[in-house]
Specification:
This protein has one helix and no strands. By secondary structure, the chain is mainly α. The termini are far apart.
């Protein structure tokens, strides 16, 4: 098993969290127009 230093581990955890948050943020930005369209459609009916 390779000896991983705490800084390497912290860097990997940081990148994992950063990429995960970017993915969640991107998904929410993609879903926003559909959410607004559904809300507008519900307001008409």
């Amino acid at each position: 098993m390779a000896n991983i230093t705490t800084t390497e581990r912290a860097r990997k955890i940081f990148w994992f969290v950063a990429l995960w948050m970017a993915g969640v943020g991107g998904t929410m930005l993609l879903a926003l127009p559909f959410k607004l369209l559904i809300r507008a459609g519900a307001a008409i009916h």
